[in-house]
Amino acid sequence: MAVSDPNFEERNQDEKKNTARGGFSTALGALFATLGSAIGLGNIWKFPSEAGMNGGAAFIIVYLLATLFVGLPVMISEIAMGRRARANVIQTMRKVSPSKKQPWWLIGVGGVLAAFFIMAFYTEVVGWVFAYIFKSITGGLLSTDPAVTSQAFIDLISDPWQALLWQWLVLIFITVIILRGVSKGIEATAKRLIPLLFVLLLIIDIRSLTLPGAVEGLKFLFTPDFSKLTAAAILSAMGLAFFKLSVGMGTMTTYGSYWKDDQDIPGTTARVMLSDLFVSLLAGVAIFPAVFSFGLQVDAGPSLLFITIPTIFASMPFGGMFMVLFFLLAAVAATGAMLSLIEVPVAFLNEQFSLPRAKGAIITSVLLALIGSLAALSSSVLADVTVFGKNFFDLFDFLSSNLLLPLGGLFIAIFVGWFWGKENVKRALTNDGALQNEKLVQVFFVIVKFVTPLLVLLVLLSGFGVFS
Ligand code: TRP
Question: Which residues line ligand 1 at a C-beta cut-off of 6 Å?
Fold first, then answer.
């Protein structure tokens, strides 16, 4: 690659560690792995529950706008910088920075912190998913009475030992995969799981759509009701766009560092964004028609998955089997996402301290088990400990989705639009002139320079009530 920036070359030499860097082995593998990061509980759990609470289609429209003007531009920026620097997020930000004095590496520090916060509550929810797979096989969950399914969920989350046990199981599972490396671990897993995910989703969609009264659920999902759209809902929609596309904290920067030089960044990221959206809508189609068909609450929020879903499955023939498939789907989706989260600190420890991957992975997992326990115990032993009126679980979720990710995204957009330089952006997105997409690059540059930062700033301020 022709590099004309002498500072970059110098720093690149400075920081070149003797650790041989892995990478995704093919373009398709990179697409699957990146998509595997994007698809996750964000699609299966957050998207339906937030859409349900915030007026369905209206929320989806705002979410779409946030994806196009905020999520996608930040994703493109992150991948471009990561591929250029070929390093973990903190070193990437240091390398691409035009001067050593500018503290852009702090974005990377925020990113590594955010990875821990997100994983802390994420692994807990995946722990519930694992528990539900197990319990739906053994048959302890099915009941047509919401009071019973809700009690079963409360019994699970308020038992400190069960909560910890399932979370740690999840952590061990992820650590075993991440130990195998970028190509043999992350990429190979994503290539197997993504096709499985689509098959499971289609089976459940067909089941849901053939229930009596399914149309009502589709109407809810696709007819906007703007009256429910508050400033807080708009902040949530933007937070969700960050969360679902895994942007704002360096996951995509890290993954970009594993992409090949000739991979089309705008083209591949657009595919990731569209497929991720498609999976969210399919998840909505799996859930809402069934919720309406059985006359249950659409605005149940986070418990939608764990209380409403079992009630639904209990009421249909072969429900037990569908319930196993449903939670398997959630586990499959969450696996690629967790791999991408944990990879951020693992890559950092590996490169910054020349730690072998295995050591970095184990250190990260132990730290995650510790901070994750705060989230795991927030419905039992630590239920009364609140910060800003939220227990640890909600605090980690809120801090990361609604604060750290948007802030990270804001600074990434500002950096790429105002400091990285148009020439660098052009070279990254055209693969040094090999791709004929100059118009697209122009449009991208205007969006990332003006539209993205302004939108994020406005939504952040209004979400925190500055204008009211
Ligand atoms: N996108 C994933 C989901 O929808 C979660 C995720 C993975 C994530 N990596 C991330 C969120 C990085 C924010 C940042 O479940």
Answer: 37-38, 40-43, 118, 243-244, 246, 249, 251, 337, 340-341, 405
